[in-house]
Amino acid sequence: MVFEHELNKLAIEWTISGDREIRLIGYKQDIAAIFTNLIDNSIYWISNTNENTLEIKSIKVDIVTADGVLKEISFKDSGPGIEENLI
Are the beta carbons of 77 and 64 closer than 8 angstroms? Predict the structure, then answer.
């Protein structure tokens, strides 16, 4: 994994749960760019948040399928999140 060294160095726990054998329609490089950006942003905000405010530093990806069909990919981290007024 591209970010494994940095995740380990910063003690960020990461998990991927669900079916890893899903098929997506789209260009492989676009899907890779999406997840690279999400992980890079998570690492940045987790590592630049006051250590005292984070009990656990984590990134979690849940892949939800039903009857072999992708329903949802949930990406969560323990960073500060997006300010309400920016959503």
Answer: no
For 43, the enclosing helix (H) or strand (E) is helix 28-47
- Give me the pLDDT at residue 81, please: 86
Question: How many residues would you count in the chain?
Answer: 87
Q: What is the pLDDT of residues 23-77, one digit of tens each?
A: 788 899 999 999 999 999 999 999 988 766 767 899 999 999 988 888 999 999 9
R_g of the chain computed on alpha carbons: 14
Question: Per the structure block, which two tokens stand in for 15?
Answer: 């998990």
Which of 80, 79, 85, 74 has its CA nearest to residue 35?
A: 74
CA 44 to CA 1: how far, in whole Å? 17
Q: Are 34 and 54 in contact (CB under 8 A)?
A: no
Which amino acid belongs to residue 35?
F
pLDDT at position 52: 67
Tokens (6 digits) for 68? 């072999």
